[in-house]
Design a protein that fits this description.
With 140 residues, the chain is mainly α. It contains 6 helices and no strands.
Length: 140
């Protein structure tokens, strides 16, 4: 059996930091305008999506998702014995490529999601994972 001891405060901090990144990522400062333009080009109405979405539940689910990802990243870092920021960043990048991209490429293939949306969304996941890995790597 694998003996894993997760640093709960650091795991929560890492998840919160990646969740907070989303506020900047989806704002006009970074990719908000590009995402809206790509959604419109895909025939979707961003304003209608906003009206149809319960924002509290959406933010709650997003925060929960980042917390789960943070816990799993902590487990993976310990399981492979990654020590320090550099090794943590490498593992996070590999996990992103091997799982996030490998599976989400189906949204391009079958949903015909525009490449711009795919890149913006998955860029957020990559940077979020790297932030979590860096935070965890400092305390490794």
């Amino acid at each position: 059996m694998i003996d894993i001891a997760i640093n709960i405060p650091i795991t929560i901090l890492a998840a919160a930091a990646s969740f907070a990144l989303g506020m900047l990522w989806w704002s006009p400062v970074l990719f908000g305008r590009q995402w809206i333009a790509a959604m419109k080009a895909a025939g979707k109405d961003p304003e209608q999506l906003k009206k149809d979405t319960h924002m509290g539940a959406s933010f709650g689910l997003s925060a929960l998702g980042w917390l789960v990802a943070s816990c799993m990243l902590a487990v993976m870092l310990q399981t492979v014995g990654a020590m320090g920021v550099v090794e943590s960043l490498k593992l996070a990048g590999l996990l992103w490529l091997g799982f996030t991209i490998a599976f989400d490429v189906n949204s391009l293939a079958f949903e015909k999601r525009p490449l711009a949306i795919f890149l913006i969304n998955n860029g957020y996941y990559l940077v979020g994972l790297l932030i979590m890995a860096a935070i965890m790597g400092v305390w490794a």
